[in-house]
Amino acid sequence: MFTQTTEYALRAIVHLAQHSSSPRTRTQIAAGTQTPPDYLAKVMRSMVRAGLVKAGRGLHGGFTLARDPASITLFDVVSVVDPIQRIHVCPLGLETHRNTLCPVHRKLDQALATIEHTFRTTAIADLLSDSSGVQPLCATPACAQLLEVRV
Amino acid sequence: MFTQTTEYALRAIVHLAQHSSSPRTRTQIAAGTQTPPDYLAKVMRSMVRAGLVKAGRGLHGGFTLARDPASITLFDVVSVVDPIQRIHVCPLGLETHRNTLCPVHRKLDQALATIEHTFRTTAIADLLSDSSGVQPLCATPACAQLLEVRV
């Protein structure tokens, strides 16, 4: 239900949050997130356009987060690359269902609303300060120790 | 997040539950669910193969539900056409995340688990006996009165 684009966008945002002291190049992000560079380029362009990420040019150019990871939610990221399509209007266009969705579409929309709530209330920073000791994108404790976020 | 195939499959199953006394042809289902007939044919084949729907040939042939709508859940239908892809293993293949997903993938999987639970605990019959008075696929009270399910 979550697309590959969502997966890659989340990895990239997490990677930038983990390396916030200096810009990261596309090559660095692709390597650190196991993401195909061309696919990543498209994802990054979307996130730059949406104001989640800044792109700098030149010798010390690269990508950085445009906002504090505590203020970027999963919902913000997903909304850029693959928005949750809530069901506000009867998909069959039935006029009498306009103000009250039928039970089928109400149930589907309730499921979507639950996901939306979870995503709206989860910041990227929350995912990096999790107490499990398992850092996203990091295979080893040594990797986790090198990050600029502390668990 | 729910595909068009899921939407069409649910409409078709609901339609069959609403007209359980005699088989429904593909043309009748397509008209009653506003579904493209060719697309519907593929969806119906999947549901026949999965044992949710029976297909009869000949003059009085057509599709019927293979089970009581009280025993068919949303999860059963979705699992046939567009299964919920839970995250059981680290998508990056990180060996150290094998037994404990990182917080990103744990959060995504929790969202999927919530949907799975909702879908597993909602039967097609529940959606037809809903007290809202709005019948799926029915634009008018007259239509609802003609159905074989009672709200």
Written overview of the protein:
2 copies of one chain form a homodimer. Chain A is mainly alpha-helical. In chain A, strands 1-2 form a two-stranded antiparallel sheet. Chain A starts with a helix and ends in a 5-residue tail after the last helix. The model of chain A has no long low-confidence stretch (mean pLDDT 91).
Query: What would CATH call the architecture of one domain in chain A?
Result: Orthogonal Bundle
Proportion of residues in extended strands of chain A: 5-15%
What oligomerization state is this entry in? homodimer
User: Looking at CATH, which topology of one domain in chain A would you report?
Assistant: Arc Repressor Mutant, subunit A
Overall strand count of chain A? 2
Order of strands in the sheet with the most strands of chain A?
1-2
What is the string of helix and strand elements of chain A? HHHEEHHHH
Question: What would the keywords be for this entry?
Answer:
homodimer; mainly alpha; Arc Repressor Mutant, subunit A; two-stranded antiparallel ribbon; 2 strands; 48% helix
